[in-house]
Design goal:
The protein is 67% helix and 3% strand. The protein has 49 helices and 7 strands. Strand 6 and strand 7 form a beta hairpin. Helix 33 runs parallel beside helix 35, helix 43 runs antiparallel to helix 44 and helix 47 runs parallel beside helix 49. The longest helix has 40 residues. 48% of the residues are buried.
Length: 1021
């Protein structure tokens, strides 16, 4: 059976009809014909081409704007299909040579690219009414350019197809009938046609008259209309085909950012010998062409090669004949007089007598020609053998071609990588200078992975009026679609650039490559190589597929070679165009659910501590997988469980609530019993972040829900956590009540771990209240219990609090020893919060001993950990300590600045005792500056605030410090009675605390001075 059985065709329209008659009616008839042809076509590669072309025609007819350009594209598509199908009519698949099959497949690729462009245009037409005017105008002009580009692409496709046919017809006798040859050659101008004939042809070489004729009469007998053109065109690539080759004039040097050291290396290698051969590798859009052109325009290269620097744009070399013609054109060779164009090229290079250089740009196009790699490798090797010729290839991927035949210049150039942040910003601002100083720019560039092409396209959007904040928001919503609007080729559309890599020969020929890429695209943090067998069990050939993806530079390895990643724009494209299948998606979720569930537990438990390292490396992926599952998975329970397990881990690492907040909403919407556990986890995490009011509300609801579910253990834990929040808010009486309630519940259900936690917390509260002996006995009891439970972290927490008790009592050696022991345990179990707390205690001990440098170092180190964890209370405490230390070092300006920052933190926390401490220090600073009135005002304000919230040791000490400072100021001002009264009150408070012996002694000395001055005055009176 032939390729199709021709249906009965409608009657041909008259040739006397006006050439200006609209052809859409004819197109509609052609659609009917083409649909019948497709239905009757048994050969897949032909049927696929017809189907894609039909989609193009139908979609173009539906686009409401740019009708003229759409109509022209419809005519191009229809006429091309009719010509090709009529030429193949009656042939079986076995009768079609391999070259022609490949040519039809390349046409199918061209059709698919055109269809993708039309889909973008079609989506835009529905959005333009709501767009900003600048962007809508940009889209309008860009749509027209895209449509014209699509028509030109199909014209070039006919050109390339005709060239392939010409080679086969000369060599095999296939397509020997005159009419068929004429059909393929109908759209091109020959050198033999006179000037009068040229006027009938458009700018691209395809005649308007010929397209019209093919559309109207191709349904009956195309051949009759094309005899005259056939006679001229028969037998070789037409003159017009040569004229329509892309320009080989060397482009100017591009603007380059952050690549100068790489370019210098290329230049040095290029000039290291008479004949050198280099390859610049990397993913699409990374800047390979820019680096190569900058190299070619380097003054050192110009000095070596002068005018003999050639540029061959291989992107258009879709066949070997066209590749040869491009080289010949770059060398300025005359039209071929033989059937061996490559020999002419080699002869010209060898006989030139000068050093020559050729840049083969985008060489992957010719290298990936199916079935031609062996021939191309030999061609490249023959060029490399010419002593006077040096060349550079720019090529997608990470692999040098033909390494078995060519000794590439050593050392080989490493593949290009994304830009660093500074040159990335410079590149963006060069295009959009108005964006300078925008705080959102670094985040936007990070979102783009600092990929040069993506930066350029995004900056162009900013140039026409979009703000960086708007672009950042749009990128998060639209992703790669945002950068596929201006232009339409690999240099102006990120989608086109990425698609070329995805359709490269290695990727096309490995069935597992795209499925694996679809899985990896779901992991923005990259995939651990040790995890790959677990996350993609449905792809047994993942190792071979990964090698292919690496070769195509669609993925890259981390510096330590343990993680494989995808650049953000490529990842976005794959998510959009190659979504993961349901089976592999469920495998991926299951693997990450299992990992997340290792986060249940507490620091000090072996299983939890062992899991921390694995979890910390996968946080970005866990966020992504769990949030997506909470939104899209059918089974939400597994996703909710993973969410609270993961958040529990985060509370010990770096507290965040974005995942658990979403889980709470889903649990409410689905009526899940897991809501109680989610709320408990949420409240506990907010407690670490010092968001006490919201945390308390969540824990109150969680406690009630856990109790209703019969979970007394978790209900008691919620009560205990509420008590801990009250303690942090300096509400010690209420805190004791809640913790004692929780302890009773734990003992009732024989939950020793929970009861011991309550013992410790009560000791902590007693220490804050200044009940030091009660605190010591309670903490020692808790240490004993924790030891029995083998809870070393619990022991460390008790030791740290005991250290605070010892410090307050002035027992500094005991305090330091307890803190050291606690710190070693915290380090062993990677409890950063505990490490920071011990550092803060070390700072306080050094402060009491007037060792201010050591005190400041310890406080600053603690603050760095608190900042990393987002611990607001810790940040405020460490800043407060640093301010006091700086004041003691008599750096009053810095102390005031630090105290201002500290006050802001306490205000955010709503901690009045902390705010009062800041006012006290402000008063002391003004005092030291001799501004007594301002000092007294601040100290009185602080004292009032301490008195209002006098529910613990900190408030009592704060009042004593204010009285001491005010007493000293009053003595200096001669107000001796007031001074003595305030100093006596301060001395009484200090004398009860061993750590304040020095302060008490100072008060005694000040009182003596005041009494002496008062006695002298009375004696004088």
């Amino acid at each position: 059976m032939g390729i199709f059985s021709s249906p009965k065709l409608p009657k041909s329209p008259s040739r006397l009809e006006s050439a200006g008659v609209a052809t859409l009616g004819g197109v509609q008839v052609s659609l009917t014909l083409l649909e019948k042809l497709m239905d009757g076509t048994p050969i897949p590669f032909v049927k696929g081409a017809i189907g894609t072309a039909l989609e193009i025609i139908k979609l173009a007819k539906g686009i409401q704007s740019d009708k003229e350009d759409c109509d022209n594209l419809i005519k191009c598509t229809t006429s091309l299909l009719i010509v090709i199908l009529d030429s193949l009519k009656g042939r079986t698949e076995e009768q079609i040579p391999t070259h022609i099959k490949q040519a039809v497949e390349r046409l199918s690729t061209n059709f698919q690219e055109v269809l993708d462009e039309l889909r973008i245009i079609d989506r835009r037409t529905g959005k333009q009414s709501s767009m900003r005017m600048a962007r809508a105008i940009l889209y309008h002009f860009d749509n027209s350019e895209k449509l014209k580009g699509c028509s030109s692409k199909l014209d070039w496709a006919i050109n390339e197809f005709q060239a392939s046919l010409d080679i086969v017809s000369r060599g095999s006798g296939f397509f020997t009938d005159d009419c068929t040859i004429g059909c393929f050659q109908s759209g091109f101008v020959s050198e033999g046609l006179g000037a009068s004939r040229r006027t009938a042809y458009g700018a691209n070489g395809v005649t308007t008259r010929t397209r019209q004729t093919v559309l109207q009469t191709g349904q009956v007998k195309i051949q009759d209309e094309l005899v005259e053109i056939r006679e001229v065109m028969k037998g070789k690539i037409s003159g017009n085909a040569l004229q329509s080759l892309p320009s080989t004039v060397m482009p100017s040097s591009p603007r380059i950012f952050g690549r100068q050291s790489y370019i210098n290396k290329v230049v040095q290698l290029l000039l290291s010998a008479i004949s050198t051969h280099l390859v610049i590798l990397g993913p699409g859009g990374i800047g390979k062409t820019s680096v190569a052109l900058s190299t070619v325009h380097d003054s050192r290269v110009i000095e070596r090669f002068g005018i003999y620097r050639r540029w061959v744009p291989c992107e258009q070399a879709t066949s070997l004949p066209l590749f040869f013609e491009l080289i010949a054109k770059s060398l300025g060779l005359p039209p071929s007089t033989t059937n061996d164009r490559f020999s002419e090229i080699v002869a010209a290079l060898e006989e030139s007598g000068v050093l020559q250089f050729v840049l083969f740009d985008n060489f992957e196009t010719i290298w990936d020609l199916e079935g031609e790699q062996s021939a191309i490798a030999n061609i490249l090797a023959r060029l490399a053998s010419i002593p006077s010729l040096s060349f550079i290839l720019t090529m997608r991927g990470i692999q040098h071609p033909a390494s078995n035949l060519i000794d590439w210049t050593s050392p080989r150039l490493p593949p290009l990588t994304p830009l660093e942040m500074d040159p990335a910003q410079e590149a963006f601002l060069k295009i959009s200078p108005d964006s300078e100083g925008d705080d959102n720019l670094p985040e936007l560039l990070r979102e783009l992975d600092c990929m040069p092409l993506a930066i350029t396209l995004m900056a162009k959007l900013a140039e026409v009026g979009e703000t960086v904040a708007e672009l950042l928001s749009q990128w998060k919503q639209e992703q790669v679609k945002l950068l596929s609007q201006p232009g339409g080729d690999r240099t102006s559309s990120i989608e086109v650039s990425i698609r070329l890599s995805l359709t490269s020969l290695p990727v096309r020929t490995n069935a597992d490559a795209i499925p694996l890429l679809s899985i990896l695209a779901r992991l923005p943090g990259g995939a651990s190589l040790t995890q790959l067998p677990t996350i993609c069990p449905s792809i047994p050939g993942w190792k071979a597929a990964l090698r292919v993806l690496r070769t195509a530079a669609l993925v890259y390895d981390s510096p330590d070679k343990t993680v494989v990643r995808i650049l953000s724009p490529i990842r976005s494209y794959v998510l959009l165009h190659h979504p993961i299948a349901e089976g592999p998606l469920q495998d991926l979720r299951t693997a990450y659910y299992d990992l997340a569930n290792k986060g249940r537990g507490y620091t000090g438990e072996p299983e939890f501590d062992n899991a921390v390292a694995d979890l910390s490396k996968e946080e970005i992926n866990l966020d992504t997988i769990i949030l997506d599952a909470l939104k899209n998975a059918v089974n939400k329970e597994d996703a909710i469980t993973a969410a609270f397990s993961y958040t529990n881990y985060l509370s010990f690492a770096q507290p965040r609530v974005n995942v658990i907040e979403r889980a709470i909403q889903v649990a409410r919407d689905t009526g899940s019993d897991l809501l109680a556990t989610c709320l408990q986890c949420y409240g506990d995490t907010l407690r670490y972040q010092s968001q006490y009011d919201v945390a308390s509300l969540a824990l109150e609801e969680a406690r009630d829900r856990q109790f209703q579910l019969g979970n007394k253990t978790n209900s008691a834990y919620c009560s205990m956590l509420i008590g801990e929040i009250l303690r942090a808010q300096n509400k010690y009486v209420e805190a004791c009540s809640r913790v004692e309630e929780a302890e009773y519940l734990f003992l009732e259900i024989h939950e020793q771990n929970g009861a011991t936690n309550c013992r410790f917390l009560l000791g902590y509260i007693y220490e804050a209240q200044g009940k030091l002996e009660s605190a010591k006995s309670t903490l020692e009891e808790a240490i004993s219990r924790y030891a029995e439970l083998q809870d070393q972290v619990g022991v460390a927490s008790c030791l740290l609090t005991l250290g605070k008790v010892y410090r307050t009592q002035g027992q500094y050696e005991a305090a330091y020893s307890a803190a050291e022991e606690a710190k070693s345990i915290y380090i062993k179990f990677r409890v950063l919060q505990g490490v920071a707390n011990t550092l803060l205690l070390f700072g306080d001990i050094h402060f009491d001993r007037c060792q201010y440098s050591e005190a400041y170092s310890a406080a600053a180190e603690a603050r760095a950990i608190y900042v990393k964890r987002g611990d607001k209370l810790g940040i405020a405490l460490s800043l407060s300590s640093m301010g006091n230390i700086i004041f003691k070092q008599e750096r009053y300006v810095e102390a005031q600045r630090c105290t201002e920052e500290t006050k802001d933190e306490w205000v955010k926390l709503g901690n009045n005792v902390g705010i009062a401490n800041c006012w006290r220090l402000f008063g002391d600073i003004y005092w030291m500056k001799g501004e007594y009135d301002e000092a007294c005002c601040r100290l009185e304000e602080a004292k009032s605030l301490f008195a209002k919230h006098n529910n613990g040791l900190n408030s009592s000490l704060g009042i004593a410090d204010c009285n001491s400072s005010l007493g000293k100021i009053f003595r200096l001002q001669g107000q001796y009675d007031n001074a003595i009264k305030l100093l006596e009150e301060a001395r009484m408070t200090y004398s009860t605390l061993g750590s304040k012996e020095k302060d008490a002694a100072e008060c005694t000395e000040e009182i003596a001075l005041a009494l002496q001055a008062l006695g002298s005055r009375e004696h004088a009176d």
